[in-house]
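Section 5.1 Outputs to date
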Amino acid sequence: MELLFTEPALFVGLVFLFSLMIGSFLNVVIHRLPKMMEAEWASQCAELRGEKLPSTPRYNLWLPRSACPSCGHTITALENIPLFSWLWLRGRCSACGTPISARYPLVELFTALLSAAVAWKWGWSMQTIAALLMVWALIALAFIDLDTTLLPDSLTLPLLWLGLLFNLNGAFATLPSAVVGAIAGYLLLWSVYWLFKLATGKEGMGFGDFKLLAALGAWLGWEMLPVIILLSSVVGAAVGIAMIVFVSHDRRIPIPFGPYLAGGGVVALFFGADLTQAYLAQF
Protein backbone atom coordinates (compact mmCIF):
# COMPACT_ATOMS: atom_id res chain seq x y z
CA MET A 1 0.00 0.00 0.00
CA GLU A 2 2.86 2.36 0.80
CA LEU A 3 4.27 1.77 -2.69
CA LEU A 4 0.98 2.93 -4.22
CA PHE A 5 1.38 6.26 -2.42
CA THR A 6 5.06 6.73 -3.20
CA GLU A 7 5.11 5.32 -6.76
CA PRO A 8 2.35 6.93 -8.86
CA ALA A 9 3.47 5.05 -12.00
CA LEU A 10 2.91 1.72 -10.25
CA PHE A 11 -0.59 2.73 -9.22
CA VAL A 12 -1.40 3.92 -12.74
CA GLY A 13 -0.08 0.66 -14.20
CA LEU A 14 -2.19 -1.44 -11.83
CA VAL A 15 -5.29 0.59 -12.67
CA PHE A 16 -4.53 0.13 -16.38
CA LEU A 17 -4.30 -3.67 -16.05
CA PHE A 18 -7.38 -3.90 -13.83
CA SER A 19 -9.34 -1.68 -16.21
CA LEU A 20 -8.57 -4.00 -19.13
CA MET A 21 -10.71 -6.56 -17.28
CA ILE A 22 -13.37 -3.92 -16.65
CA GLY A 23 -13.34 -3.13 -20.36
CA SER A 24 -13.94 -6.81 -21.10
CA PHE A 25 -16.93 -6.77 -18.76
CA LEU A 26 -18.21 -3.55 -20.36
CA ASN A 27 -18.22 -5.37 -23.70
CA VAL A 28 -20.60 -7.89 -22.13
CA VAL A 29 -22.80 -5.11 -20.72
CA ILE A 30 -22.89 -3.31 -24.07
CA HIS A 31 -23.90 -6.49 -25.90
CA ARG A 32 -26.26 -8.11 -23.41
CA LEU A 33 -28.05 -5.33 -21.56
CA PRO A 34 -30.14 -4.22 -24.58
CA LYS A 35 -31.10 -7.86 -25.24
CA MET A 36 -32.10 -8.26 -21.59
CA MET A 37 -34.24 -5.12 -21.87
CA GLU A 38 -35.95 -6.43 -25.02
CA ALA A 39 -36.69 -9.73 -23.30
CA GLU A 40 -38.16 -7.89 -20.31
CA TRP A 41 -40.35 -5.73 -22.56
CA ALA A 42 -41.58 -8.82 -24.43
CA SER A 43 -42.41 -10.48 -21.11
CA GLN A 44 -44.33 -7.42 -19.88
CA CYS A 45 -46.30 -7.16 -23.15
CA ALA A 46 -47.16 -10.85 -23.04
CA GLU A 47 -48.30 -10.50 -19.43
CA LEU A 48 -50.57 -7.58 -20.37
CA ARG A 49 -52.07 -9.68 -23.18
CA GLY A 50 -52.59 -12.57 -20.80
CA GLU A 51 -50.14 -14.76 -22.70
CA LYS A 52 -47.47 -17.02 -21.29
CA LEU A 53 -43.98 -16.85 -22.77
CA PRO A 54 -42.16 -20.13 -23.40
CA SER A 55 -39.40 -20.88 -20.92
CA THR A 56 -35.97 -19.86 -22.17
CA PRO A 57 -32.44 -20.45 -20.86
CA ARG A 58 -31.24 -17.95 -18.28
CA TYR A 59 -29.69 -14.92 -19.94
CA ASN A 60 -28.04 -12.13 -17.97
CA LEU A 61 -24.67 -10.44 -17.57
CA TRP A 62 -23.17 -13.62 -16.09
CA LEU A 63 -24.90 -16.50 -17.87
CA PRO A 64 -24.47 -18.12 -20.34
CA ARG A 65 -20.72 -18.01 -20.85
CA SER A 66 -19.48 -16.06 -23.85
CA ALA A 67 -19.46 -18.06 -27.08
CA CYS A 68 -18.78 -17.61 -30.79
CA PRO A 69 -22.02 -16.44 -32.44
CA SER A 70 -21.20 -18.45 -35.58
CA CYS A 71 -20.29 -21.92 -34.28
CA GLY A 72 -21.27 -21.73 -30.59
CA HIS A 73 -17.74 -22.46 -29.37
CA THR A 74 -17.51 -21.52 -25.68
CA ILE A 75 -14.78 -18.97 -25.06
CA THR A 76 -12.16 -20.48 -22.76
CA ALA A 77 -10.32 -18.58 -20.04
CA LEU A 78 -7.17 -18.36 -22.17
CA GLU A 79 -9.21 -16.99 -25.07
CA ASN A 80 -10.81 -14.39 -22.84
CA ILE A 81 -7.75 -12.48 -21.62
CA PRO A 82 -8.50 -8.82 -22.37
CA LEU A 83 -6.73 -7.43 -25.45
CA PHE A 84 -4.02 -10.10 -25.53
CA SER A 85 -6.28 -13.02 -26.46
CA TRP A 86 -7.65 -11.12 -29.48
CA LEU A 87 -4.09 -10.44 -30.65
CA TRP A 88 -3.03 -14.04 -29.99
CA LEU A 89 -6.02 -15.40 -31.93
CA ARG A 90 -5.36 -12.83 -34.68
CA GLY A 91 -8.92 -11.61 -34.36
CA ARG A 92 -10.56 -14.94 -35.24
CA CYS A 93 -12.48 -17.70 -33.46
CA SER A 94 -10.15 -20.57 -32.59
CA ALA A 95 -12.79 -23.13 -33.61
CA CYS A 96 -14.27 -21.87 -36.88
CA GLY A 97 -12.03 -18.97 -37.88
CA THR A 98 -14.87 -16.43 -37.97
CA PRO A 99 -13.50 -12.87 -37.57
CA ILE A 100 -13.97 -11.30 -34.14
CA SER A 101 -14.83 -7.60 -34.24
CA ALA A 102 -11.90 -5.31 -33.45
CA ARG A 103 -14.26 -3.22 -31.36
CA TYR A 104 -13.93 -5.64 -28.42
CA PRO A 105 -10.19 -5.05 -27.83
CA LEU A 106 -10.59 -1.36 -28.69
CA VAL A 107 -13.22 -0.93 -25.94
CA GLU A 108 -10.90 -2.74 -23.52
CA LEU A 109 -7.92 -0.57 -24.49
CA PHE A 110 -9.94 2.66 -24.44
CA THR A 111 -11.30 1.81 -20.98
CA ALA A 112 -7.82 1.05 -19.68
CA LEU A 113 -6.26 4.23 -21.12
CA LEU A 114 -9.03 6.48 -19.83
CA SER A 115 -8.88 4.80 -16.41
CA ALA A 116 -5.10 5.23 -16.29
CA ALA A 117 -5.58 8.94 -17.04
CA VAL A 118 -8.00 9.15 -14.10
CA ALA A 119 -5.49 7.43 -11.81
CA TRP A 120 -2.71 9.76 -12.96
CA LYS A 121 -4.78 12.90 -12.40
CA TRP A 122 -6.22 12.10 -8.95
CA GLY A 123 -3.80 9.49 -7.60
CA TRP A 124 -4.71 7.20 -4.71
CA SER A 125 -7.91 8.92 -3.56
CA MET A 126 -11.68 8.64 -3.26
CA GLN A 127 -11.94 10.91 -6.29
CA THR A 128 -10.20 8.27 -8.39
CA ILE A 129 -12.67 5.59 -7.32
CA ALA A 130 -15.58 7.90 -8.07
CA ALA A 131 -14.21 9.07 -11.43
CA LEU A 132 -13.51 5.48 -12.50
CA LEU A 133 -17.11 4.47 -11.81
CA MET A 134 -18.33 7.49 -13.75
CA VAL A 135 -16.06 6.85 -16.73
CA TRP A 136 -16.92 3.15 -16.92
CA ALA A 137 -20.64 3.90 -16.87
CA LEU A 138 -20.26 6.56 -19.57
CA ILE A 139 -18.35 4.16 -21.83
CA ALA A 140 -21.09 1.54 -21.53
CA LEU A 141 -23.83 4.12 -22.13
CA ALA A 142 -22.08 5.64 -25.15
CA PHE A 143 -21.67 2.33 -26.96
CA ILE A 144 -25.15 1.07 -26.09
CA ASP A 145 -26.65 4.28 -27.45
CA LEU A 146 -24.46 4.03 -30.54
CA ASP A 147 -25.73 0.50 -31.20
CA THR A 148 -29.38 0.80 -30.21
CA THR A 149 -30.21 4.51 -29.62
CA LEU A 150 -31.11 3.46 -26.06
CA LEU A 151 -29.80 4.87 -22.77
CA PRO A 152 -30.93 2.31 -20.15
CA ASP A 153 -32.44 3.64 -16.92
CA SER A 154 -30.59 0.82 -15.16
CA LEU A 155 -27.37 2.76 -15.88
CA THR A 156 -28.38 6.44 -16.07
CA LEU A 157 -30.36 6.55 -12.81
CA PRO A 158 -27.74 4.81 -10.59
CA LEU A 159 -25.15 7.10 -12.21
CA LEU A 160 -27.20 10.13 -11.15
CA TRP A 161 -27.59 8.95 -7.54
CA LEU A 162 -23.92 8.00 -7.30
CA GLY A 163 -22.96 11.52 -8.40
CA LEU A 164 -25.03 13.04 -5.62
CA LEU A 165 -23.66 10.50 -3.13
CA PHE A 166 -19.99 11.22 -3.89
CA ASN A 167 -20.64 14.96 -3.84
CA LEU A 168 -21.95 14.74 -0.27
CA ASN A 169 -18.27 15.30 0.55
CA GLY A 170 -17.64 17.56 -2.45
CA ALA A 171 -15.71 15.08 -4.59
CA PHE A 172 -16.20 17.14 -7.78
CA ALA A 173 -18.76 19.79 -6.81
CA THR A 174 -20.57 21.06 -3.75
CA LEU A 175 -23.79 19.24 -2.92
CA PRO A 176 -26.03 22.27 -3.72
CA SER A 177 -24.27 22.63 -7.09
CA ALA A 178 -24.73 18.92 -7.77
CA VAL A 179 -28.45 18.99 -6.92
CA VAL A 180 -29.02 22.08 -9.08
CA GLY A 181 -26.92 20.45 -11.80
CA ALA A 182 -29.12 17.34 -11.81
CA ILE A 183 -32.31 19.41 -11.98
CA ALA A 184 -30.99 21.86 -14.58
CA GLY A 185 -29.45 19.10 -16.70
CA TYR A 186 -32.78 17.33 -17.00
CA LEU A 187 -34.86 20.45 -17.57
CA LEU A 188 -32.52 21.92 -20.19
CA LEU A 189 -32.87 19.02 -22.62
CA TRP A 190 -36.50 18.46 -21.61
CA SER A 191 -37.21 22.06 -22.68
CA VAL A 192 -35.31 21.62 -25.96
CA TYR A 193 -37.29 18.42 -26.62
CA TRP A 194 -40.67 20.12 -26.19
CA LEU A 195 -39.72 23.27 -28.09
CA PHE A 196 -38.56 21.16 -31.02
CA LYS A 197 -41.66 18.96 -30.87
CA LEU A 198 -44.02 21.94 -30.75
CA ALA A 199 -42.20 23.57 -33.66
CA THR A 200 -41.86 20.51 -35.91
CA GLY A 201 -44.23 17.88 -34.56
CA LYS A 202 -41.27 15.48 -34.26
CA GLU A 203 -39.22 14.17 -31.36
CA GLY A 204 -35.68 15.51 -31.51
CA MET A 205 -34.17 13.33 -28.78
CA GLY A 206 -35.03 10.62 -26.27
CA PHE A 207 -35.78 10.87 -22.57
CA GLY A 208 -32.56 8.98 -21.86
CA ASP A 209 -30.59 12.04 -22.97
CA PHE A 210 -32.35 14.14 -20.30
CA LYS A 211 -31.40 11.62 -17.62
CA LEU A 212 -27.80 11.36 -18.81
CA LEU A 213 -27.28 15.14 -18.70
CA ALA A 214 -28.95 15.19 -15.27
CA ALA A 215 -26.46 12.54 -14.13
CA LEU A 216 -23.54 14.58 -15.48
CA GLY A 217 -24.89 17.63 -13.66
CA ALA A 218 -25.10 15.59 -10.46
CA TRP A 219 -21.44 14.59 -10.82
CA LEU A 220 -19.87 17.83 -11.99
CA GLY A 221 -22.26 20.54 -10.79
CA TRP A 222 -24.34 23.02 -12.74
CA GLU A 223 -21.28 25.10 -13.58
CA MET A 224 -20.05 22.39 -15.97
CA LEU A 225 -23.33 22.06 -17.89
CA PRO A 226 -22.51 24.84 -20.42
CA VAL A 227 -19.18 23.16 -21.21
CA ILE A 228 -20.81 19.74 -21.64
CA ILE A 229 -23.66 21.04 -23.80
CA LEU A 230 -21.37 23.17 -25.97
CA LEU A 231 -18.86 20.37 -26.57
CA SER A 232 -21.46 17.69 -27.23
CA SER A 233 -23.59 19.91 -29.47
CA VAL A 234 -20.70 21.18 -31.61
CA VAL A 235 -19.16 17.73 -32.09
CA GLY A 236 -22.56 16.06 -32.60
CA ALA A 237 -23.60 18.65 -35.19
CA ALA A 238 -20.28 18.35 -37.04
CA VAL A 239 -20.45 14.55 -37.14
CA GLY A 240 -24.13 14.59 -38.15
CA ILE A 241 -23.53 17.02 -41.03
CA ALA A 242 -20.47 15.04 -42.16
CA MET A 243 -22.49 11.79 -42.18
CA ILE A 244 -25.27 13.39 -44.25
CA VAL A 245 -22.87 15.03 -46.71
CA PHE A 246 -20.15 12.40 -47.10
CA VAL A 247 -21.83 9.11 -46.13
CA SER A 248 -25.31 9.88 -47.47
CA HIS A 249 -26.85 9.21 -44.07
CA ASP A 250 -30.66 9.18 -44.21
CA ARG A 251 -31.88 12.25 -42.31
CA ARG A 252 -34.89 10.29 -41.09
CA ILE A 253 -32.63 7.86 -39.20
CA PRO A 254 -31.83 9.35 -35.77
CA ILE A 255 -28.22 9.93 -34.76
CA PRO A 256 -27.68 9.06 -31.07
CA PHE A 257 -26.72 12.04 -28.90
CA GLY A 258 -25.63 9.98 -25.88
CA PRO A 259 -22.04 9.34 -27.07
CA TYR A 260 -21.49 13.08 -27.52
CA LEU A 261 -22.95 13.87 -24.09
CA ALA A 262 -20.74 11.18 -22.56
CA GLY A 263 -17.69 12.55 -24.38
CA GLY A 264 -18.51 16.08 -23.26
CA GLY A 265 -18.88 14.79 -19.70
CA VAL A 266 -15.46 13.11 -19.77
CA VAL A 267 -13.79 16.25 -21.16
CA ALA A 268 -15.52 18.36 -18.49
CA LEU A 269 -14.40 15.90 -15.80
CA PHE A 270 -10.74 16.36 -16.78
CA PHE A 271 -10.61 19.90 -18.15
CA GLY A 272 -13.94 21.59 -17.36
CA ALA A 273 -12.56 24.03 -14.80
CA ASP A 274 -9.62 24.98 -17.06
CA LEU A 275 -11.91 25.49 -20.08
CA THR A 276 -14.28 27.65 -18.05
CA GLN A 277 -11.42 29.74 -16.65
CA ALA A 278 -9.90 30.17 -20.12
CA TYR A 279 -13.26 31.34 -21.48
CA LEU A 280 -13.94 33.77 -18.62
CA ALA A 281 -10.41 35.15 -18.94
CA GLN A 282 -11.36 36.52 -22.36
CA PHE A 283 -13.66 38.98 -20.57
